[in-house]
TrEMBL record:
One of its GO terms (biological process) is replication fork processing. Pfam families: EME1-MUS81_C, ERCC4. This is ERCC4 domain-containing protein. One of its GO terms (cellular component) is nucleus. Residues 2-253 form the ERCC4 domain.
Amino acid sequence: DEILAALQSTESNYVIQSQTLPYSITWRRKTGLTQAEEDDWTEEPNVLVPVLLPDFIAMIHNGKQARVESPTETLQSFVAEITEKIPGKTLSLAVTELEKHFSSQKPKSQKKLQQPEQSSSKAQEEGKPRKRKEKAIPVSQLSRLDVEEALVELQLHTGVQVQVLASWKEFGEFASMFTKAVAEAPFKKEKTKTSFSFCLEGDWCRGVKVDRTGKGLLQVWKRQIQQFNRVSLEMANAIVARYPSPLLLMQAY
């Protein structure tokens, strides 16, 4: 309900239907400009998949215990399975209410923490060799560090990021912002294209001559600034007037 309410607030059109990935959110863009092309839609490459908290924690736990137990589904294998089903798509994952997992953890008592130390010291006194046995970590004891390490490894190996959200209401707001970003992407891409109109100017093509006294260096510096994206002639003039050399600009920042 929170997701639909957030989408309705942005006046977005949505359809609930079965998809290749259950519970996933995909986008389509209307490309038809006439009534005859009313049903002409283009699929966007973005796919947002919410992951339920128990499944998310279980997959991280399985990844931590991969060397101890038999292989099971992990975050990386989960992503690999999804990308096989939707080749060519840009995948994003989201998990909600992660704090519920950490808040449910009960701190161990000091007495329980001291028991292994006492038993190990007793074994040393008796001259018995200690055997370090690797034990499986309970799912309920996964720490924040375990989760962060799993997310970093996932991004390094697959390039997929996981958005951690506090509630399903926040997920709805995130889905709404995602929808807006997908809708505006082509227009922003078109807007940021550089026309390079300055290349047609004769003065630019002729270049700048610099003599032994340094005359002309200011003009060279201004043209170097103009090579940056979205830097107009007026902006370059203002920068050069304030910082007549690259060194002065570097010292200021």
